[in-house]
Structures are given as C-alpha cells and as structure tokens.
Amino acid sequence: MGEFELLALLRSRLDTQSDRLLVGPGDDAAVVRPAGAVSVTSVDAFVEGVHFRLATTSLDDLGHKCMAAGLSDLAAMGAAAGEAYVTIGLPDRHGEPDLVALADGAAALAREHGAVICGGDLTRAGELFVAVAVVGYAESAAALATRAGARPGDLVGVTGALGGAGAGLMLLERRLAGVEPPAAAQLRARQRRPRPLLAAGRALARAAVSAMIDVSDGVASDALRLCEQSGVGIDVRLDLLPAEEGVTDVAAMAGVDPVEIVAAAGEDYELLFTAPAGRRETIEHAAAACGSPVTWIGHVRGLAEEGEERLRLLDESARSRRLAGWDHLGTDRARTGPPGAASR
Questions:
Q1: What residue ranges define each of the domains in the chain, with the CATH number in brackets?
Q2: Dist CA 301 CA 93 (whole Å)
Q3: 103-138 tens-digit pLDDT
C-alpha cells in the first residue's frame, strides 16, 4: 500500500469520537477545544536497536509501551490525558499488518485513559522508530506537580513496586528460567505493557506533593533529576526500595545484585515524589485509593557546601553506593537490563 492508503487505514483504526476534537486526522492539522485552563505537553521517541528490540516485543506491545511512556509523563505532572499524536518511521521490511498492530496497541491504551489520537505522521525510515506527543490538561498551573518543588525536610516516597520491568527484560533477553510462572508472567508484562498511573498522579498532586517524576530511567537517575531541578540533596535508602515479586530470583539467576535492578533498571513508570512530613498520611490515603501503595524511601536535605553530592544512595549501614540508571545518549544498544547485568 502507498502512503495515502496506509494513512487512511490508520485513520480507520482510530477512535476519534471526542467533544474536544473539532478537526481530526486527514487535514493539515488537528483542531482541539482545550479541556482545561492549562495544557501539559510531552514528547518521547523510541528507536529500534536503542530503546527496544523486536526480538523481545510485539508490534502491538510496542505501540502500547510508547503510548504508556508519554501518558506516564502526564501522570508525573498530575495532569489528565487529552490528545496524542503519533509519528512512525517504517522500514521496508514492515508491512501493513505490522503498522496496524502498532497503531492498535497505542490506540487501545489511549482510549483506556480518555486520550484521543488526533494525528501524526508516517514516513519511510532505515530503522523502525515511533515518536509520541501527548497533551494533558489541568484546571490551573498550581494544580500540577513539577520536579522543582522539593524542600529540605521533605520525605521521599514512591508508588508500587520497582524492578519489575528490568527483571522482565532480563527474562526476555536471556531466556532465564526458574522464576515461578505467575511471577515471571507479571515481570514480562511490566516490561512489555507498563501501566501509566494517571489517576494516582492526579491524586498525589491534589494531595500536595512538593515535587514528582515518573520512574522511567530508574530511581538512581530520576531522584537525581529531582535534586537538580529543586536545588536540594536527597538521601535514598536502598534497603527500603519496594521490589517487585520475582526480582530477587531473576537477579540470582543472572548473577547480579538485586538492588541494581530495583534502583537502576527503570521502565517501571511508578511515581517518585517528595512531600512535607505533615502530609504523609493524606498522601498515603490518596495514592492507596487509586491502587498505588506508597513506600517512604528517604528524605530531602539542604546542600551545605559547594560540590556536595546531591544524591546519596545509602545501604542499610548508611554507606553510599554508586548506581546509575538509563542514559539515553550513553549507548547505541537497546536496553538490556540493569548496569552490571549486561553491556549498555
């Protein structure tokens, strides 16, 4: 099929029924009626051989995962989902069924969270790539959470469990066996089909967290971003990090320290946040009501002197450990698990 036939096919797969969408796919640009007083926009790109390998993911799963990453950025801001725009670079080796599968995976997750795919672009490319732009809304800028609000004395919390996506990728890449079937299936699902926590993000923002970020690159990287944007230091207790069931077993089979998976593998898309100590119970209840239990893993401190280490990852004996999460420009290979587990 040619470009225009493929675009027509994609449009036929999308659910564009929305009171907000005035002009949808097929015109030069989309026309949308805003759903809130302020809009929030995020753009993510995924390149074959850098961010994913088709040997370990289906096209349907890939579409889901690319959309999930964008929606998770909205969750980290405390915004509600609005519109999405998807650009696909398609190599010659991929045909109509592959394109449809990818689009269906993205569209199904968007629909689940009330987002409408309003358009995008389709082009020929040497390697498969997907770029997703998402737009969310909030009633005011004050209703949003950013990375810049953490203050000394705040607590550091995280939703859910960590390490599942990294362990799932290790199961897929290395074909490891030995994890109990239910746990193994859950770990693979955490890697292939992550769940953006939009409801929890809005609830945490309403509960007045002081800063928030989604755990896309690992706590070891994402907590540092909170430090940098807020101008503070953070101490994280590695022994308090909540590990997904089965992660320890995968680490043992792979011969790595499980904390490397839990703290550094990334792609869990849980929410990492800071909050005043007096808001602790309110925040726990708000997140739990959305099915996202909170674990408190550290605290925010001021920086006493120039050059002081911003992020300290501490073991149970308060000794600092060096761990690094995913660096998007630090490798030309696809994600292959935590640092130390395989070459990045």
A1: 3-143 (3.30.1330.10), 155-321 (3.90.650.10)
A2: 53
A3: 999 999 999 999 999 989 999 999 999 999 999 999
